[in-house]
Write a structure and sequence with these properties.
Elements (H helix, E strand, L loop, with lengths): L3 H10 L2 H7 L9 H7 L4 E7 L6 E7 L5 E5 L2 E5 L18 E8 L4 E12 L2 E12 L6 E2 L2 E3 L9 E3 L4 H8 L3 E8 L2 E8 L5 E5 L2 E5 L8 H8 L2 E7 L6 E12 L5 E13 L5 E3 L2 E2 L10
Antiparallel strand pairs: 1-2, 1-5, 3-4, 4-7, 5-6, 6-7, 8-19, 9-18, 10-17, 11-12, 11-15, 13-14, 14-17, 15-16, 16-17
Helix pairs in contact: 1-5
Protein name: Pyridoxamine 5-phosphate oxidase
InterPro entries: Pyridox_Oxase_N, Split_barrel_FMN-bd
Pfam family, one: PNPOx_N
Length: about 290
């Protein structure tokens, strides 16, 4: 269930027993309640390593609810593809690609992760599940509703090797981002949230954030302990603009179990109006710590 990277972090923080208890919730089957949840979602976050470059990216697919669905007790099917120029395009059309997926519903503050191996299908792809589990709503902002903007067209993607001032401000103002990590022959996609300012831009090529206390499994930090490659995805929940970052991350451990992640940007990809969803304003999670001044 846990690989050596996760075990290393669990032991360092002293939560192995808690991790073993929580880890019992991880299975391979998509239970009926999880299948129903998937069928209601208009967005799916995906993380994987690009086969051509080896870089890890996090991305998102959207569609009418039902575009993501369980098509077996251990299979999830997705209708739709990312654009050909997307860094995940090859990964999502290659048989056997390890992928991590995250279905997150801001309306109910529920989320579930399904990690496994991908198989292309005529209309999209399917994922054979290796891990299926839910996460608690901690640090997840509530957004009461969304609308699909039918005439929204993605703009031209802009690539760069560092953050512009506008992109740095975008990151610093974020209350949510998604992180993709990998290990051995697996991948994972997860969520990080907090009040605006919880992610700090140390320089045009470096971000930092505090790793808040969570479920004790340390799947993300465990993956980073084994393989530092990571991908981040920031989204504007109003305009649909996305900012994808790929690079490497390392965890810095402080006294009392405090942890901070430092991410080095190797490439940035900003796509105006990439997502057709417009969400209502956030209600910040009561669990969010106040960012330091």
């Amino acid at each position: 269930m846990y690989h050596a990277g996760s075990r290393t972090v669990q032991d360092r923080v002293g939560v192995r027993r808690n991790a073993d208890h929580v880890g019992r919730s991880i299975g391979r089957d998509i239970k009926p309640v999880a299948a129903a949840f998937l069928g209601l979602q208009p967005m799916l976050v995906i993380g994987a390593a690009a086969p051509d470059s080896g870089r890890v990216w996090a991305g998102a697919l959207t569609g009418t609810p039902g575009f993501v669905r369980a098509t077996g007790t251990r299979q999830m099917s997705v209708t739709g593809r990312v654009p050909a120029a997307d860094p995940l395009a090859t990964a999502l059309t290659t048989v056997g690609t390890p992928v991590g997926t995250l279905a997150l519903d801001p309306r109910t503050r529920r989320r579930m992760r399904l990690n496994g191996r991908l198989r292309p299908t005529p209309g999209g792809f399917a994922v054979e599940a290796d891990q299926v589990f839910a996460n608690c709503p901690k640090y997840l902002q509530r957004r009461q509703s969304y609308e699909t903007v039918g005439d929204r067209t993605p703009g031209t993607a802009r690539r760069s090797g560092e953050l512009s001032r506008a992109q740095a401000a975008f990151v610093a103002d974020a209350d949510t981002f998604f992180i993709a990590t990998v290990h051995g022959d697996g991948a994972d996609a997860s969520h990080r949230g907090g009040n605006p300012g919880f992610v700090r831009v140390a320089s045009p090529t470096e971000l930092t954030w505090r790793d808040y206390p969570g479920n004790a499994m340390f799947l993300t930090l465990g993956n980073l302990a084994a393989d530092p490659r990571a991908g981040l995805l920031f989204a504007d929940w109003t305009t649909g603009t996305t900012l994808g970052l790929t690079g490497e991350a390392r965890t810095e451990f402080g006294p009392g179990g405090e942890r901070r992640v430092r991410f080095t940007v190797h490439e940035a990809l900003e796509t105006p109006h990439a997502l057709p969803l417009r969400w209502s304003a956030p209600e910040y999670s009561p669990a969010n710590p106040q960012p330091p001044g």
